Every structure is written in C-alpha cells, then in structure tokens.
Amino acid sequence: TSTKNKELKGIPGPNGMFIFGNALDYFFMTSESAFSYFRYLTGKHKRMFQLNLLNKQIVLLYHPEDVEALINSTKHNDKGYLYAFLRPWLNDGLLLSSGTKWHQRRKILTPAFHFKILRHFNEVLIDKSAKFAENLQSEVNQSKTNIYSFLTDFTINSICETAMGTVLDQESSSVSRCYKDAIHELGTHLFNRASSIWLHPEPLFNLSQVGRAHKSTLDLITSFRDCVIKQRRQDGHFTDLYKTTMTESDDDFFINGKKRFAMLDLLLNAEQQGTINSEGINEEVDTFMFEGHDTTATGLQFAFMLLANHPDAQDRILEEYSTILNSSNRRPTLSDLSELKYLEACIKESLRLYPPVYFIERKSDFPLKLGGIERPPPGSITILIFDLHRRADQFIEPLEFRPERFMKEPTWHPFSYLPFSAGARNCIGQKFAMMEMKLAITTVLSKYRLLPVTKPQDLVFKVDIVLRTKDPVYVKLEERKKT
Ligand code: HEM
C-alpha cells in the first residue's frame, strides 16, 4: 500500500481540507465558477490532476496518451462515481449499465442504427429539418433568436419519429414541452447534488429539498416517456421484426406494408422474446430520448453560432451542397450527405471546440499506466474532453474555428479528438447524429443567412450534464435571396 499511496499521491491536485479533502471546494461556487475552476486546474497541472472527496479519489485526464490507455482497454468499461447521480433517471439503460447486461442490450440495439435503417431515417429527418426551418420563419429579421428552443423541438420530434417510431400528437407534444424544461432543471439538481457532499448518499438526497424537486422533475420525464411507449405499443405489429431484421433484403423492414425499423420495435420485440422486461424498455427509452436529443441540439446550437460568425463558411457549405446535388432541388441521399466533406469538417470543428458531452467518467478496478507510470486503480477516472480538444500541442491555434484542419489527414494524436468517445462504449448514435446535423444545417442555410449576435468570446459555460452556457446563445436570421 505504501507504493500505491506514493504513486497515487504523486498525482498533483488542489490542497484539500483534513478529512473532507476537496469535497467542500465547490459548495460556495456557482456552476459557472466551477466550470472555470476546472479550466484553471487543467492549466495549472499540465498532465493530470486529482480530487479527493472524503474517501473517494478522482483522477482527471486530458493527455491523449493517458486517455488512450484508459479507453483502449476493455478493462475500464464501467462508468464512474458521478454517473450514480443519473441512476434514478436512466437506471440501467445503455449509458450506465455494465457487464453482461450492457453487452446484451448493446447487441439488441445495434441493428437499430444499421445503415439500411439510417436510409429510412434520412427521409424522416429531411422532413423534420424542413419543418424546423419553417418554424424559424417567424424569427426572420428579429434582432436576435435563441435558437436552442427551436433546436430541441426539432431533435425531440426527430428522435421520436425515427428511433421511437412515434409521431407526437397534440397531447404528447405538450408533455414534450414539460420534458424539455425538466431536462434543464435536472442539470441544476445534479450540480447542486455533486457540489454538496452530504447529498451524495441516496437516502439523504431523497430527503432534501433538492432531492424532492428532483423526484417531481423525474415524474414529468417519466410521463413523457410513457406517452411515447404507449403510442408505439398501440400501433402493434412488431412480432416478426427480429426475424426480418436479420435477413439481407431491405424490404424486410416492412411488415404488412408498415415500416418496422424503430429502435423501440426492437425493444418491444425483445420483450416478446423474453430478453427484456418493461422496466428494461423504460430505461432504454429514457436513455435514448435524452442522449438522442439534447446532445445534437447542443451541438447544433454551437455550430449555428460559429457559422453566424463565419459567413465565408456558410457560403462554402452551400456551394458544396449545390455541387453535390447538381444544383437540383432533389432530396439528399445518405451518399450525398457523406460527400459533404466541408460541411462535415465544420461540424467536426464545432464539436472539437464545443463538445456537447464534455466529460466522461470511468470506474477503475485495474492498474493503469498514466503519465508513463503504472499506477494502481484510483476510484474514478474522468476524461475532460473539453480540455483534450483544446490542447495547443495537438491543434494549431486551438481556440480558433478552422474547419480546414479536418479536410486533411489528422496531425493530432487519435485520442485527442473524442466527441463521441471511442472503444466499446463509444456513442451508438454517432452516425445518426452526424446525419441529423448535416440535414439541419443545409436546410436552414439554404433558406436563411445567419448573422452573428453571440460571439465565441461571449460564451460563459457552466457545469451541467451537457455543455451549457450561462446565457442563451443568439443568432440573427435573414432571408437568403436566391441568386
Ligand atoms: C452530437 C451528438 C452526440 C454526441 C456528442 C454524443 C456523445 C456521446 C459520448 C461521448 C458517449 C460516451 C459516454 C460515456 O462514455 O459515458 C455517448 C454514448 C452514447 N450515446 Fe451519444 N452522442 C451524441 C448523439 C447521440 C444520439 C443521436 C444517440 C441516440 C440516437 C446517442 C446515444 C448514445 C448512447 C445510448 C450511448 C451509450 C452507449 C454505450 O455505453 O454503449 N448519442 N455519446
């Protein structure tokens, strides 16, 4: 143990208080000051640092070699300490589960994102993007538009009509508005919990004021999820899906003339096969509803802000789009989308500067080589994706928007760019997300010119479940004159 202590103690970090360690460091901070405090610590400690919360040790990484050691090894697949706070909401859904349960679920759900299915999703997303652009019409020539609210409507409708196979009716649309607000409240509860060490144990949290508020927020989220599942259950006809998705022909995704390729159908079918129960379905729908909408809405929010500040990039995206579609008005296919290289570079650069999932955490039960030294397992290991993406030794002019860097062979270490993570626990919805973002951007830019209001230097970030800002992110919309 003395060697163990030496090697783990050797990792620098802010001085803690006797017994409490760093557990009280964040209590008096706002979520914005906590966000900048983390950036101060990564600036001070060039390789990694550690925090101690009572008896828990968390090591925070942002060097690509250390990140590679952690992510590349299948030994470190389980999620870390802070993820426990998401458990009352997402339970054992794919994001949080581990071991054979995770493995079995990942196997059930992987076909939901098969490229043949994405081709059908593409059609739905084209329509959803057109509707999104139409909704923005009322904003033309307003002095500023908070685009995020329009974006979450778009991404919630998109995930419902693709992965869930559910078109929101009037009732569920109004429940979905409560759902959006609830997700935001949840972020505040989670920060309050994380920064107050006495709220970490579940029973104490449940008794607290914030714990009770959290419970009623979860009830709102649950009612939306139940609406979505109920609608799909009523739709019926999913019995033969398992068999049909396993065959080669694309037509097999149609049963009795109905499209049956929603991820929710796979789950309902698995329920009939006895490999998942209704709680299992609930936790996966909660997980995919959240992961499938807030991440892409956040990613698009920052992409639109950047494009508004870079009119030349807007022009180039449209030029490329018109070349690929031969200046016609036809609907883009998946293969057209894959040829939009400049647009893809803009999205990747935006995800580099503003990764919606800006940190992830793993549990470590095995020794790990960090900073060139073999170390015994600390409690939890956090990867600070935000800081990894902004390393000056990996990206030239790291704070600048330079999409061109993604048009060439990467000059950076492969583990210094991880917006979707990597390895076995990477993002299952990555291709879906890229497709959705490409369609939203080309559709909106074809109709409107974006003008800057919020500038990159105005952004003040706060600690939350995804990358959020203190103030709304604004752009201005102008009708684009057809030339
Ligand atoms: C720009 C959009 C997105 C970003 C930046 C993103 C990022 C990520 C990251 C970093 C992880 C790893 C999390 C961890 O290790 O704890 C992840 C996992 C996951 N993502 Fe995404 N995601 C996006 C969109 C989506 C979409 C559209 C879906 C669903 C349709 C989705 C579903 C999931 C799920 C279910 C997991 C857990 C996978 C597993 O552990 O097996 N994500 N995502």
From TrEMBL:
One matching Pfam family is p450
Provide the residue positions that the database annotates as binding heme: 427
Q: Which GO terms describe its molecular function?
A: heme binding; iron ion binding; monooxygenase activity; oxidoreductase activity, acting on paired donors, with incorporation or reduction of molecular oxygen
The cofactor named in the record is: heme
Q: Which domain of life is it from?
A: Eukaryota
Q: Which CDD domains does the protein's record reference? A: CYP4
Ordered alphabetically, the record's keywords are: Heme, Iron, Metal-binding, Monooxygenase, Oxidoreductase, Signal
Entry-linked PROSITE patterns: CYTOCHROME_P450 (PS00086)
> What family is it from?
Belongs to the cytochrome P450 family.
* PANTHER family given in the database record: CYTOCHROME P450 4P1-RELATED, CYTOCHROME P450 FAMILY 4
- Give the protein's function: May be involved in the metabolism of insect hormones and in the breakdown of synthetic insecticides.
What is the protein's given name? Jg23977 protein
Source organism per UniProt: Pararge aegeria aegeria
Gene name, Swiss-Prot/TrEMBL: jg23977
